[in-house]
UniProtKB/TrEMBL annotation:
Protein name: DUF3307 domain-containing protein
This protein's UniProt keywords: Membrane, Transmembrane, Transmembrane helix
Organism of this sequence: Costertonia aggregata
Phylogenetic lineage: Bacteria, Pseudomonadati, Bacteroidota, Flavobacteriia, Flavobacteriales
Transmembrane segments: 36-53, 59-77, 89-107, 122-143, 170-190, 210-232
One Pfam family this sequence matches: DUF3307
Keyword Translocase: no
The organism's place on the tree of life at top rank: Bacteria
UniProt KW Transmembrane helix keyword: yes
Signal peptide boundaries: none
Amino acid sequence: MVMFTKLLLAHLIGDFLLQPNRWVIHKEANRAASKYLYYHVLLHFLVTMILLWDLSYWNIALVIAVSHYVIDLAKLYTTPLFKLKSIPFFIDQALHLVVLYVCAYYENLPEHTIALFEKLDWPLATALIFVTFPAAIIMGKLLEAMSDKIELDHKSLPNAGKYIGIIERLFVLMFIILDRWEAIGLLIAAKSVFRFNDLKESNNRKLTEYILIGTLLSFGLAIIAGVVYINVR
């Protein structure tokens, strides 16, 4: 675990703390011809070696540096194919994490991977998945008849409400697991404050009732998921 933590820290330092924005722009414009791509890879090698502080691990640092070059180069050439730049970014980061994991546990990789899955808290994973998109879909079905009667006179970000609901349910689930029920009340109060001006300006009773029902339903599903998890873990 210590090895993986050091490798992860080196990655975070090299990819985020020590990579100026001008490097990123130059790499995107020049790709393989960018000198900053090679500076970036060399930087990763040096930071990894410094954090490991053992010359015998030079081969691990080299594997990470070479794989980082290949992954970054692939991202630079495939990014224009994606409408959202966040998609290749997260794919890139996921591949880097896989490489770090393999390098940290290469001596007993199959055994460690199997043990990792065996120790996984499956009820927690199920609860986390449930309060995200499944709960959002369930709420959409339950509120479908009401949503058709709501007239919105303002524009909002696409799917903003859905993602706000997902985030709030994740917070509620976390508070329940940590046995901090009072924090749920604070979360409801905070959301009410943010919504107050919108509801006041709209002067729309149907919208107010719809938001209230949706909020209570969202919190209710998260609370149910949290209570079930606590009782089955």
